[in-house]
Design goal:
Elements: E1 4-5, E2 11-14, E3 41-42, E4 46-47, E5 50-67, E6 80-85, E7 97-101, E8 109-125, E9 130-131, E10 134-135, E11 137-144, H1 147-159, H2 166-177, E12 183-185, H3 186-191, E13 204-206
Antiparallel strand pairs: 1-11, 2-5, 3-10, 4-9, 5-8, 5-11, 6-7, 6-8, 12-13
């Protein structure tokens, strides 16, 4: 089974903003570790700074890879924690912990094994201290929890000569699996032939109840 960096398809946010170093820069696919090159995210200095990526679906996460800043202050990340789960309580920090980052040398990339922890949200937080949280790349490796159902649906697609996008397959999973809710971005809606258009301007919307579930 191929395990991809699913963070590349996610939506990132963080507790505050330093300069123009927005949360999404940490999942731009670029490990450039110089903050001035605008490929790193950074919060302001604050107590318990956090960063979070919404994977837009439930994944079994095998590993999280973090690239630390190179041009300054590499010890700022010391003590950061990685949390994974499906809850947004306390900004997702209350989800189970995958790892504690004791140290990452300047400009280096370290991988932390998460042993297939399940979750939609991956959160990095520096607990209990006033600090900047700077991330030059966060990679999340994993696979959809419903991988076997995806395979069955793709086989059905082949047999019936159906032209479904990956998003359409996710909708079919909802119909067959009874999950009852999923969040799609506006771009995904535009790519799909089966998702009804949202009636609001939110970045994503729930299909809960669309298929008589949830």
């Amino acid at each position: 089974m191929q395990i991809d960096n699913v963070a590349l398809r996610g939506v990132a946010t963080q507790s505050s903003l330093w300069s123009n170093d927005v949360a999404q820069l940490a999942i731009d696919g670029n490990r450039d570790a110089n903050l001035a090159d605008r490929s790193c995210s950074s919060t302001s200095e604050e107590t318990n700074p956090w960063w979070r990526v919404d994977l837009l679906g439930r994944y079994s996460v095998t590993a999280v890879t973090v690239t630390n800043r190179e041009d300054c202050c590499p010890t700022r990340i010391d003590g950061a924690e990685i949390h994974i789960g499906n809850s947004l309580d306390n900004n997702g920090i209350d989800n189970p912990r995958c790892a504690v980052i004791s140290n990452i040398p300047a400009g280096q990339t370290y991988t932390f094994q998460c042993n297939e922890m399940e979750g939609r949200y991956v959160v990095l937080v520096i607990p209990g201290q006033a600090q900047y949280l700077t991330l030059c790349e966060v990679e999340v490796y994993g696979y959809l929890v419903m991988t076997q159902q995806v395979v069955r649906l793709k086989l059905a697609q082949k047999d019936q000569n159906m032209n479904l996008t990956d998003v359409d397959l996710q909708v079919a999973i909802l119909q067959q699996g009874g999950i009852g809710a999923f969040c799609f971005t506006e771009r995904q809606v535009a790519q799909s032939a089966v998702i009804p258009a949202p009636n609001n301007s939110d970045d994503c919307f729930s299909l809960k109840g669309q298929f008589g579930k949830g």
